[in-house]
Each structure stands twice: as structure tokens, then as C-alpha cells.
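Title: Prediction job returns without error message
Component: structure pipeline
Severity: low
Priority: P3
Assignee: unassigned

Description:
Job completed but the reporter wants confirmation the result is attached to the right record. Sequence as submitted:
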Amino acid sequence: MKRTTWPPNYLWLHEYTLAKPDAVADFKESWDALRYFVHGKIFALLVRNRGATLLNLKCDPYLSLDFRARYTTVLPGWHMNKLHWVSLSLMEPTPESVCRELVDISYDLVWKGLPKRIRESGKQRTP
């Protein structure tokens, strides 16, 4: 089985995602997925579905409806809660600004859900 990897034209998005403050990534073999965490909470997940490479991202339910209506590459979250997650298809081009915005939204939602003691732990978080 071929391991899930970033399409070459989206390697910049991997770097952008991993550059978020306190972000770390690992590969979970049993899921065939590259997971991105902030303090133990997943905010992005690179997966494959029937040959398509998808980046699952947390999203505000109202915003996800808007993104899905405007961009054919933004889909309901594959194998995730469809209300709170979207899947960004990396098989077709999506404007870079949209990709960055979706990653930012996901990271911020997960960051805001962390315990206050972690958010205020002295590490300066840049927007």
C-alpha cells in the first residue's frame, strides 16, 4: 500500500500547516494519515479516499457551508463530523489564500478549545 503523501504542488501547504505555533505532525500507519496537532489535539489530517488526497480541517459550521458553496474542492469532512470538519481536495487547484484561510480557521478553533492554562502558558502565539 502506498503511503499518503502531499501532492508536490501542495508541499507549501504542509510547511504552512507545520509552521503554526506549537504544531507537530506524525504519521499514523493504521489510518494511513499524516496528523497535525497542537498540544495533543488534531487540527489537520492528510488522508486518501479512493486515490484522492484530502486535507481534513476543522471549520465553523456556517463558514464550512459558505466554503463548500464557493469552492468545488471543499467537501464535507471525510470520516469526520460533517458539521465541524471539511475536506480540502488536493487533486485540483484551490486558491492559495483559501487553503491558508482554512488551515488558519482550523488551527484557531482547536487553539481556542485548549485549556486556558495551556493558552496562557507563556508561549507567545503569533496569528
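Comment from assignee: result matches the submitted record. Residues 115 and 121 are 10 Å apart (CA to CA).
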